[in-house]
C-alpha cells in the first residue's frame, strides 16, 4: 500500500476523533443534562444525540472506510461486503431508535414533531440511507443483479453514501445548535457557559471526523487492490475470471463477462469506467 | 462529451435550484423580515443570509463546476483558471461583507460574537477558503510553482474545495436554524408559520444544490478533456509539450517534465496519478 504510514496515522486520528466525540456526547448528557432513561422525559430525548453520534456518524464512518483497511485485503470481498452492510445496518438501527426516542419525548411533552429544518433533513437522510442499504443488499450483496446493473449503479452507490454521510453530519450540527439554544437559558448559549464550549467542540470534532473519513474514502491509491480488474487491463494474458464487481455473481452473467472482454480497447475503456466509478471496493 | 444531455439537465437543475434559493432568501428578508439596510439594525444583519447564499453557496458552486462546461473546452486553460479564481474571489468578498454585517449588528445590539457552533465553523470555513484561494493563486495560477508541487497539491486542492463547499452549506443550515428559533416568537418556529415553511424549503434547496454540484464535480467523464495528458499516456509519440497542469509553467520546470517522461511505465503511473488527482481541471 502506498503511504501506509500516512494511512495508519489518518485512521488512528479518525478513530480517536470519533471515539472522543462519542465520549463527549456521554459527558454532555450525563454531566450537563439529565442522563439517559426511556420514560418520555428529557432522559429519553438524550438517547438521540448519543445514538446519532455513535451510530449514524461514528459507525457509519467506519463502515465507509472498511474496505480501505489493508489487513482486510486478504479476506474475501464477500466477507467485507457483509461487514460493510452489517455496520451500516447497525448504524441504521441506532438512528431509528434515536428517532423513536425524540418522537416519544415530543409526544409526551406535547411538542410538535417535524417542524424544524433539522427534522426535515434528518428524516430525508434516514429515508435515503434506508434506500441505499436496501439497494446495496439487493444489487451488490445478493448474487442476482447482472454485472451491467452493478457497474451502472456503483458510482451512484458511492456518491449517495458519501453525500448521505456528509448530510448526516450537517444535520447533527443543526441538532446541536437547536439543543443548545433551547436548553441553555441561564446562562444562555450566548454567554458561552462551559456546556456550550464543550458541545461546540463536539460539533467541530464531528466535522473533523467527517473530513478525515471523506479524505480516506476518496484517495484512489488507498482502494482495495483491483487484482481482478488488473486482468482486464491486460487482456492478452487471457485470464478467465472477471472483475471484482462480479465476485458474488452467478454464472448467469458469464455472457456479460465475455462481452466485456471481447475487444482490447473496449475492455480498457470499461476498466477505466470501473476505476472511475470506484466500484472495486463498493465504496 | 459523454451524456451531454444529462449534464445539461443537471446543470439547468443546479442553476434553477441555486437561483430559486437566492430569490427565497430575498423573499425571506423583504417579505417576512426587515429588508436590507446598513445601519446596525436587523436590516444590516439580513445581508448575512442573502450574501452567504448568493456568494458563498451559489457563486462558489458555479466556480466549482466551471471547468465542466463543454462550451469552455475550446478556451485556454489559463482563461478558465482566471474565471475559476475570479468567481471564488467574488464569493469570498461577499462572504466577508456578510460577516462584517453580522459583527456590526451584534456590536450595535451588544450581542456577543463568536459564541455559537455556527460562528465557529463558519469562521473556520472562511479562513480555510482564504487559504485555499491564496494557495490556488500561488501554486496553480502564477507560473512559478514546479510541476511536482502542483501534482502533489492538486488532490488536496480538489478535496479541500469540495469539503469547504459542503461545510459552508452545513454552516448555512445551522444559521437558518438559529435565525428561525431566535426570530419566530409568536407564532414560534414549532408552530410552523409560513415563514418557517418557506425557510425550511430554502434549507432543503441548499442541500439539493450542493448535492447536484458535488455530483457534477465528481463525475470523471465530465472533466475537461485531458488533451495534453493523453500525450503522456502515449510516450512513444514523442510530443514535446507537457501536461495541462504545466500550462502556465516557466521553462525552469523542464527538468521536471523530462523526468516525468523518462520511462514509459513511470509515465503511465504518473498519468494515472494525474487522472486520479483530477488535476486536469483544477476541480
From TrEMBL, chains A, B:
GO terms for biological process: ascorbate homeostasis; intracellular iron ion homeostasis; multicellular organismal-level iron ion homeostasis; response to iron ion. Pfam families: Cytochrom_B561. Residues 227-283 are annotated as: Disordered. It catalyses: Cu(2+)(out) + L-ascorbate(in) = Cu(+)(out) + monodehydro-L-ascorbate radical(in) + H(+); monodehydro-L-ascorbate radical(out) + L-ascorbate(in) = monodehydro-L-ascorbate radical(in) + L-ascorbate(out); Fe(3+)(out) + L-ascorbate(in) = monodehydro-L-ascorbate radical(in) + Fe(2+)(out) + H(+). The chain crosses the membrane at residues 7-30, 50-70, 82-103, 123-144, 156-176, 196-217. One of its GO terms (molecular function) is transmembrane ascorbate ferrireductase activity. Residues 254-283 have a biased composition (Basic and acidic residues). Its cofactor is heme b. It comes from the Eukaryota. Keywords: Cell membrane, Electron transport, Heme, Iron, Membrane, Metal-binding, Oxidoreductase, Translocase, Transmembrane, Transmembrane helix, Transport. GO terms for cellular component: brush border membrane; lysosomal membrane. It is found in: Apical cell membrane. Its EC number is 7.2.1.3. It is an enzyme of class 7 (translocase). It is a multi-pass membrane protein. Homodimer. This is Plasma membrane ascorbate-dependent reductase CYBRD1.
